[in-house]
Structures are given as C-alpha cells and as structure tokens.
Amino acid sequence: MITERKKTEREARKKLIIQSALSVFKEKGLEHATMDEIAQKADFGKATLYYYFKSKDEIFNTILFDGWQSLWEGIEEYIVQTESPRQTFIVILKKLAEMVNENRALYEFLFFAPQSLPASEGQEPGWKQFQVRLYNTLLQLIEEAMDKNEFPKMDSHLVLKALGGVFHGMIFWGADREKITENAIEIFLEKFIKTHD
Amino acid sequence: MITERKKTEREARKKLIIQSALSVFKEKGLEHATMDEIAQKADFGKATLYYYFKSKDEIFNTILFDGWQSLWEGIEEYIVQTESPRQTFIVILKKLAEMVNENRALYEFLFFAPQSLPASEGQEPGWKQFQVRLYNTLLQLIEEAMDKNEFPKMDSHLVLKALGGVFHGMIFWGADREKITENAIEIFLEKFIKTHD
DNA sequence: TTATTATTCGAATGATGGGTCGAATATTAA
DNA sequence: TTAATATTCGACCCATCATTCGAATAATAA
User: Fold this and answer.
1) Contact map slice: B 77-116 vs A, CB within 8 A
2) Interface list for B 141-170 with A (CB within 8 A)
3) How far, in Å, are B7, B11, B14, B36 from residue B1 at the CA level?
C-alpha cells in the first residue's frame, strides 16, 4: 500500500540520474557522455540506469522535455496583455536569463543539444511544442510592439532571429562570470534598440 | 621532375576529400560523420583517406584552419580607418554574411563545430588566431564607434556578444532561404540600433 | 517465515567506427 | 622494359560503447 513512497523514491532516483547525465554532458559534451560515466556519477551500476530509462535516448529526451516544460512554465505568467509589449518582451527575456543562470547545465543543454542531435525519432519530439509556444509568444510581442511604435517596423521573424541572437550571444558566449547578464540584456535593449525609425 | 603536377593533384584530391567531409558533416553532424561515408562520397576507399590525412581529426582541423583563414582574408581588406567605424562594422558583417551564403556548409561548420569539439589537442588550435583577430577587430570598431557617438556607450565585450548574436541568429537560425540576410543584417542594424542614448 | 516484488549490478553481447596492413595496380623515371 | 614511386583498397584489428542477461540482494506483503 505504500506504493506512494515507492513511486516518489523512484522518481527521485530518476532525477538523480538526470542530474548526473547533465553534469557529464556539460563536461564531455553530448556525444562523449557515456552511460558508464553517468552511472558512475549517480553511484549506480550502468545496468541500473536501464531499470529507470529505456535507453540513453530516453534520458535526454526526458531532459529536453522537462527542461522546455519548466522553461515555458517559468515564462508563462509573464505573458499578459500590457500597455507595453516591448516591456513585456524584455521582462520575458530577463526571466529567461534568470532561469538560465539558475541552472546553466540544463539550459545550455536545451539550447545547444538539439543542434547536434541526430534528426531525432521521426516524430516531432514532445518538447518542440514548448519551443514553438515560446517562439510564437515572442513573435507576437514583437509585432505588437511594432504596432505601438515601440520597435521599428521590419519583418518580425527576422527581428526575432536577431533579438533571439542577442539573448543567445549575451548569455552563452564566453565562459564569463554570468549573473551579470540578466540586467545586461535589459540594459542593452534599452540602450541600443530604437523604438521607431 | 613533373613533381609539380603531382603535388597539385594531391592537393586537389585533398580538397575533394574535404568537400566530401563537409557535406557529410552537414548531413549527419560532426559526431555522426564516419570516415567510411566521407570516403564513399569522395569515391575513395576508407584506407585511402589515410593516405591523405593522418586522422579524422586532421581532416577537420584542416577545414577549420583553411576556413578561418579564408574568412579572415576575405574580411581583411575592409578593415581600414574610416570616418565611420560603425559603417565599417556593418560592412564587415555584410561581407561575412556574403561569404557564409557563398559556402554555407563550410561556415556552418566553422561556427558550430568548435562547440561540440572535445577540448581539442592541448595546444591552441591554429585557427584560433584568426578567430581572435576577427574578435579584436570587431571589438575595436565597436569601441571607436562608441567614441564617435555612433553606438551607445556600454561594455564593449557585451555589445560584441550581443551584435555577434544578431549576426549569428539572422544568418544561421532556421533553414530559411538565406541570401536575403546579407542586406537584412544591414537593414536591421540601421533600423534598430541607436547611434547614442 | 515465505512468496512476491523492487533494485542492483557484474559480465557478456553486438555493433559501430577509427585506424592499420599488405598486397595490388598505376605512374613515372631510368 | 624495368626498377622505383605513388595510389588505392579489401580485410583486419581493436577499443569503445549501448544494451541485455541472469543471478544476487533488499523490501514488502501475506
């Protein structure tokens, strides 16, 4: 009857494994992380990992899904109609930066891993939906901001790529001190980005 | 005595191999490109590759070096003292974009591969010097531009990360039509980036 | 206590893929 | 034509994994 505790413990062990995986990924890079090493870091035998995950693939699919989900959930509450979509846009980027700074290993993985992943399992990986939502949200904010003359007018997709690049570049380039960047992004956007032509 | 032709032919074959490697890298991603497949695409037996390159590693070190070198050389002539460092900055980004569009596979590799590479061979890889030069050049232009009120004043390293991110984002995100981006970058910078606070 | 279920892991399996060998086969020089 | 020299490659070798097995060992239920 204490199946409840069992489940919780199992869940906890899965999380432990995921943390280990993340840490190995960060050290060695996705492609050079071995199950052995992940197991070792989690204090398990390699075979035990397979008691918790069907495959290596399932491990980082889980990471991707949980990661994107929590990223989305962290952002969600900030998506509201305000008088200033530009401000909302900035607030969201700040929140994103904050989350990244909170758990570097995870989010570096989220943002870089998909690049080097083999085209994935035929189907849309589940985490894509969150990425798409985030994309669309930001896109919409940009368009609204343009309407209100809070951003210069230009192809919104391109602008998203550009401003997304700003985020990506400031947060992830260089092995710098981090932490600073939360505000740095806001400062950059305020200082550098015009409101209209 | 016709050693000259020999050398040329050998060089040509090396280039063929490199092209094949690039094409496989693009299809499968660095880590999933096999020597077999590269050989196949170049119409050679796997063993033959080793007649031209010491190792897989040497192949993409060659790519990295040649690539960065040509990138640098393509840019070099545009680095001149002008009245407008901001304009020079933009011109260089345009030229970079142009080169990338000219040979996508190569430059995607240049910009993404180092990320997923295992910390490399202990020593600074030779291509780093070109990357550093480019970095310093852009950094200096940004600082000069700030001095002349052509950019708002802010930590120049951060600004470089941000504007580098703009470039990266606009050029590499999405499997879009490309080509547009050469001008798009200029337009974005002119439209969105202030000259001073 | 005993049957049942949950965990764990050492050892084996199998596939993949980088790198090597030695024997061909061209090419060129003598 | 013959002895180098340059190229090419099929067949191996071997290390590195992901993944699976089967046998323990612990926990829980009966």
Assistant:
1) 112, 115-116
2) 151-152, 154-155, 157-159, 161-170
3) 11, 17, 22, 34
Is B132 an interface residue toward A (CB < 8 Å)?
A: no
Quick check: B155 and A193 CB within 8 A?
Answer: no
3-state secondary structure of A195: coil
Question: B88, B21, B90, B89: which is closest to B55 by C-alpha?
Answer: B21
User: Could you tell me the domains of chain B?
Assistant: 1-53 (1.10.10.60), 60-192 (1.10.357.10)
Contacts for B181 with CB less than 8 Å, ≥ 6 apart: B97, B101, B170, B171
> If you search the block for the tokens 């391109």, which residue do you land on?
A158
What number is the ipTM of this complex?
0.90
Q: Integer distance in angstroms from CA A51 to C1' C5?
A: 14
* CA-to-C1' span, A50 to D26 (A): 19
- At residue A193, what are phi and psi to the nearest 5 degrees? -95, 120
Least CB-CB distance to B169: which of A162, A184, A187?
A162
Q: How many CA atoms lie within 13 A of A37 on its CB side?
A: 14
- Tens digit of each residue's pLDDT (9 = 90 or more) over B129-148: 999 999 999 999 999 999 99
For every one of its 197 residues, what pLDDT tens digit does chain A have, with 9 covering 90 and above?
A: 557 777 789 999 999 999 999 999 999 998 999 999 999 999 999 999 999 999 999 999 999 999 999 999 999 999 999 999 999 999 999 999 999 999 999 999 999 887 766 655 566 788 999 999 999 999 999 999 999 999 999 999 999 999 999 999 999 987 755 677 789 999 999 999 999 88
Report CB contact under 8 Å: B29, A164: no
Min Cα separation A164/chain B (Å): 7
